[in-house]
Amino acid sequence: MIDVVYTGDIRHNQKLRKKNHNLLLREIRKLGEVKISEFYNGEGEKNFTNCPFNRGGRDAYWHPDNLRRGQGGGVQVWQYLNAIRLTNNPYVIRLRNDNWFTKSSVKVILKELKEIINGKHDISYFGSNWLEGNMGTEYQVMTKIKGVEDFVIAAKRKALNSYDDVMSKLKSIGVNHLRSGNKCFEFISNSKKKHKVLCKIYLTRRTYEDYPSEKQVCYDYLISYCTSRDGLSKMKPAFDWFENYEPWKNIKYDKRKEVNNENGFRFRLYG
After folding, report:
1. Cβ partners under 8 Å of residue 97, min gap 6
2. Is the pLDDT score of 164 beyond 70?
3. pLDDT at position 52, please?
4. How many C-beta neighbours within 10 Å does residue 124 have?
5. Section 106-115 average pLDDT
6. Strands 152-156 and 123-127, how do they pair?
7. Which of 37, 54, 68, 84 has a 20 to 30 Å separation from 227 between CA atoms?
8. HEC profile of 150-208
């Protein structure tokens, strides 16, 4: 049996989110019985332990004038550990409500999950990286891990460290490290058999009325990093890849001409 756990915020159009997530869940169910548990912020955390980390305020995607960081990485791992504590199946997959799965990413996650079930490795951290020359990667496994991805995490339960051990480690690291899930999720397992997997998973950064194309979701995700001229400059290689990705050449999308940053200033985007 496989536990699928959701933690964090509920975001955007849930009808469309469920339709997209069912692309993945339908395939996971072919591997065995699946139990889905929702441990979202608020009511979903009623049986959680007390959170020892600063949760901050709402984040930039909700209120541009109230940027939230707090100790968000520590909070996310605390949520994950409680979800593990309240479930019991031998394999567990943690999803975010704002994950957006492409067809290729579903295949990647299924392949990695099968390998975990078959004992080839113990844990896979999934995400996408647009700042280190890995734009548009379909499937790249990185076994030399410095920082992890945290969009989706699939694990063998027995390979996970205990709640107390992970929390003790988190309380010993610097405050700046507690801001990042990429740093904090490293501590959930000491297994040597773990993968950092880059693939085409995006985060939903806009509330859509109709089911969007993968291209549109990717574009809006990239735009979310452009809250300053420095951010825009760092994302230029990603936008270059986006504009030249051949399978998307003839797919129309809603392109923005400018963005407003958190200080209320406007600046033009590429093209």
Report:
1. 6, 8, 9, 10, 11, 17, 40
2. yes
3. 85
4. 25
5. 97
6. antiparallel
7. 54
8. CCEEEEEHHHCCCHHHHHHHHCCCCCCHHHCHHHHHHHHCCCCCEEEEEECEEECCCCC
DSSP H helix total and E strand total for the chain:
8, 11
Is the pLDDT higher at 62 or at 87? 87
Measured in residues, the chain has a length of 271
pLDDT score for 225? 85
Average pLDDT over residues 121-144: 86
Q: Is the pLDDT of residue 159 over 90?
A: yes
Pairing of strands 194-199, 123-127: parallel
Q: How far apart are CA 74 and CA 54, in angstroms?
A: 8
Helix/strand/coil for 221: helix
Q: CB neighbours of 151 closer than 8 A, spacing ≥ 6?
A: 96, 99, 126, 127, 128, 201, 203
Q: What is the rounded average pLDDT of the residues 33-48?
A: 94
Please give the torsion angle defined by the CA atoms of residues 5, 9, 11 and 14, in that order, rounded to the nearest 10 degrees: 40
Provide the H-helix boundaries in the chain. Answer: 14-28, 72-85, 103-117, 163-170, 181-184, 214-223, 229-234, 236-244
Beta bridge partner(s), residue 256: none
Residue with tokens 């536990």: 3
Closest CA to 2 of 79, 122, 133, 117: 117
CATH architecture of 2-201: Alpha-Beta Complex (3.90)
Structural domain boundaries of the chain? 2-201, 213-268
The answer, as to whether pTM is greater than 0.70, is: yes
